[in-house]
Amino acid sequence: MAGLSDQSVPAKFQPENTPVDELALADIKSAILVKLRLAIGKEAAFATKHDWYKAAALTLRDRMVHRWLTSDKESYDAGRKRVYYLSLEFLIGRLFTDALNNMGLLPLFEAALGDLGVGLDELRKCEPDAALGNGGLGRLAACFMESMATLGIPAFGYGIRYDFGLFRQVISHGVQQEYPDEWLGFGNPWELPRREVTYNVYFGGSIETVDDGKGRKQVIWHPGETVEAVAYDTPIVGWRGQHVNALRLWSARAPDPLRLDVFNTGDYVSASAEQARAEAICKFLYPNDESAAGRELRLRQEYFFVSASLQDLVKRHLHSDGNLRGLANKAAVQMNDTHPSLAIAELMRILVDQHNMRWDAAWQITNATLSYTNHTLLPEALETWPVELFQRLLPRHLEIIYRINEAHLDRADATRPGDTAYRASVSIIDETSGRRVRMGNLAFIGSHRINGVSAMHSELMKETVFHDLNQLYPGRITNKTNGITFRRWLMLANPKLTDLLRATCGEAVLDDPTRLIKLEAFAGDAAFQQEFRKVKHHNKLALARVIGEKLGVQADPSALFDVQIKRIHEYKRQLLNLVETVALYQAIKDEPGKDWVPRVKIFAGKAAASYRYAKLIIRLINDVAETVNNDTTIGSKLKVAFLPDYNVSLAEVIIPAADLSEQISTAGMEASGTGNMKLSLNGALTIGTLDGANIEIRDNVGPENIAIFGMTAAEVVERRAKGLDASDVINKSPNLGRAIQAIETGAFSPDDPGRYASVGHALRHLDHYVVSADFDSYYEAQRGIDTRWRAGSAWSRAAILNTARMGWFSSDRTIREYADDIWGVPVAGDLPSTTSLQARKAT
């Protein structure tokens, strides 16, 4: 797999190029110059790159808004059902080239800007990543919004307009440091402030029950605090620009931003205290919840965006339909994880308290309208809140939850009379260690559909976290395996591979990803393999430049690029990868003259600010990198790179360059994953456990084109039942024992030999995530990867087949399944069947 020379591409592998429309080109250039002068207030001669970016973005936004308003009017005129997607995270990244591509204007704008003396690539870098998410959850929400627009589904995304996105990660002396991510520092040209769309969101206070004069009791909430939610809309363009939806994000403000009476006394800080308290809600994604104040702020955030969103959709429905009894026929609300699960209590409050609906009718509407996507099998990740905090912050909602729980427990008692353990298990209120509200149980009970995000995850939900609830409400759990938008993760991230696919599979592959299957016919073609390798080499050169610029590490693009990019967490097992790296380093040191496969181990990801052990793993990665990269005895045989501040834009550089995709989570703990799909689509082979969507990737790409290792989920459970001590496996594995010893005795931290003693202790005696227990299987799988890499042509064939067989993992397929099975909304066009590629091939 040596470097490749730049040869001319055979004609049969060249895509057709459409000539630029000169009239349209002149129109775009003129529009950009007008925006530069009238919206930015600059002459071209004095404009900065950021001025040009903003002028171009506003020019594009004008064209997006035209189609947006048309789409919206058409859906309202047709009386179509709408989807409302509630998510605390939307990791949308940069929108400029994404929207240009979907609108079909990328070549025009590139040519227009070039004629004006500005490069599109340079302007793209002026746009900050909108890091309004932590990882897979937020990126999935962004993919889903784009796919809903592509499929012509009228939809609103609802979330929070955070002033600062997920923190900016800086690595200083190997240590993660967190700094504010000022993504709004230069404004946001994509959003449209809707200051007329404002709703009051209430907190605290007291509850009063009165007689309404008709023999019914009416509950009145007298809140103690009011916060205003103000809407900001961002248009989300579907493929070919045929349909545009809105992402509506809420910003918080106080009704009275300044207490003039207090200000005039000279107490300037206290005068704006109410505004500061309100603005804290939208200040930062995921405030540290180690403190009581942090936990309260998190709950305030969740209720704030849920309340504003439901008030908004109810108002919209009443405006178009006039009657809330038909709400479920015209609105489908999808809760992305447990964060929006307060929607159940809030919708009941709106229907019962504000619109005088009877409880049973309101419950039927709520249940038929709402559905819930679960993203975790970790019980600790299913949110719970102290009853005391709920009582103080949301007293009316706690009453509603109690009443929901009362009816629910009556059902449980009728199903299993006298079974107090079962009753305690399914209750919304956890009484075991201080009374807490279980948001996962609330979401399950209040939704008509609960879906997992991979086949394995959905089945494990029935057996683990929701076992008892599934018995009480059979048939509610369904599976919707995650997907990714190929427009972002193939066409934009990997344009050279896209050109090769267009030439090989036809232009229609841009509209129908299942046409990727046509690549199979070329998987063994030597000329095509050469072109495929040239694309990969080009992308690896780009990533090698980034590694060199950011880290000063020289990465050989002819080496195997071994990539693990995801949130740093113990169950995702970056530590397993790192221990194997240490063992490999030691082996190379022992036999430097051996024919080793050169590797570049590439890590990227952020650890939660309060997750100390994950941050220690980041430091260990950087300490190992410092030792390995400066060891002249091994040269370029092994390099380690931790790329800081991982975000969508960095992923768009890393993923097309990856040769090996690390998907090595502890079996039974990863819900799905989407990075695994992106990497495989771009021609990386996967090394992974039978976990999450790895199983479906194996089923689609073929077991011979993926490297599976390690324990199954059942075997992990069995192993844990025997205890967490790993002395037995360490004693049998010299490679593992030696690597652990080096880590725990300070071989990589000579300035502080005891720095990683806790890591060594965990690997030896607290192996909850079976890092040590899975090590030998992983190490052998990695040596198998070496053998495959040396085979050259066989590696290329497997990489091509990975790309060819990934069409099923389009988020368009996922959204169509949601539309058919959960939301009951039609989709535009005649999309491919949701049957997997392997099933279609067998047929």
UniProtKB/TrEMBL annotation:
It comes from the Bacteria. Its cofactor is pyridoxal 5'-phosphate. It catalyses: [(1->4)-alpha-D-glucosyl](n) + phosphate = [(1->4)-alpha-D-glucosyl](n-1) + alpha-D-glucose 1-phosphate. One of its GO terms (cellular component) is cytoplasm. Its EC number is 2.4.1.1. CDD domains: GT35_Glycogen_Phosphorylase (cd04300). It is found in: Cytoplasm. The keyword Cytoplasm applies. Keywords: Allosteric enzyme, Carbohydrate metabolism, Cytoplasm, Glycosyltransferase, Pyridoxal phosphate, Transferase. The modification N6-(pyridoxal phosphate)lysine is found at K678. The keyword Glycosyltransferase applies. GO terms for molecular function: glycogen phosphorylase activity; pyridoxal phosphate binding. Belongs to the glycogen phosphorylase family. Phosphorylase is an important allosteric enzyme in carbohydrate metabolism. Enzymes from different sources differ in their regulatory mechanisms and in their natural substrates. However, all known phosphorylases share catalytic and structural properties. This is Alpha-1,4 glucan phosphorylase. It comes from Tardiphaga robiniae.
